[in-house]
Amino acid sequence: MRVTIRLFARLRDLAGSGELVRDVEGPATVQTVWRHLVAEMPALSEYERTMSVAVNADYSRMSASVSEGDEVAFLPPVSGG
Amino acid sequence: MPLPLVALSPGVLDLQALTQAVAGSRAGDGAVASFAGLVRDHNQGRRVSFLDYEAYEPLAVRALGRIVDEVRQAWPDTQVGVHHRTGRIEIGEASVIIVAASPHRANAFAACRYTIERVKQIVPIWKHEHFEGGDVWLEGATADPDDESARQSAYRIACA
Question: For the domain with range B6-159, which CATH number is right: 1.10.275.10, 3.40.1570.10, 3.90.1170.40, 3.40.30.10?
């Protein structure tokens, strides 16, 4: 199934793009999408323990299931304010 | 039309307009506290040229709304509004403004402080610092709105 991956800040810089469309095998979780991404871009793995994740612009967890057409975002530690 | 209580925008922030939106129709209030976060010219020994703020906009607006709800729960008599700017912001300009209105000053100050602490914890916004000689993405807290210990930490700081 097809998902849209959103990346921000330094994660976006490392990947060279803030929005990627990828096919992953279902049934999938956020973790599945992340593994798929890291296999393609190993440099991203340094964020595995510090990032947050979101599905369809709502905070989520690595174990959450992902459906066809979902937008899955990986967020480095935030620095607003 | 009054401004929304939470907003993200690339435009210059307007503290007077946000104050009107938060406190304009609350005759029972005796206190308005406000906070503005500014871009400063130095950070960790670097001479900062400007900051470029990136946001995951729909989630950032949601997270700001959550903070407003948290304030209502913690201080039911207090109303807060928060606007955050995105994009390139020059030295001395505001990146975030917060206004809290309450019958008494203690809750207005506390709600203001709580809001900025929570912004730094859970709102998906990032500073890209451009300094003399380079640039760097700043990274602070791992955002987790359900982390109760982080929320309590913000509350303790607000009430200190």
Answer: 3.90.1170.40
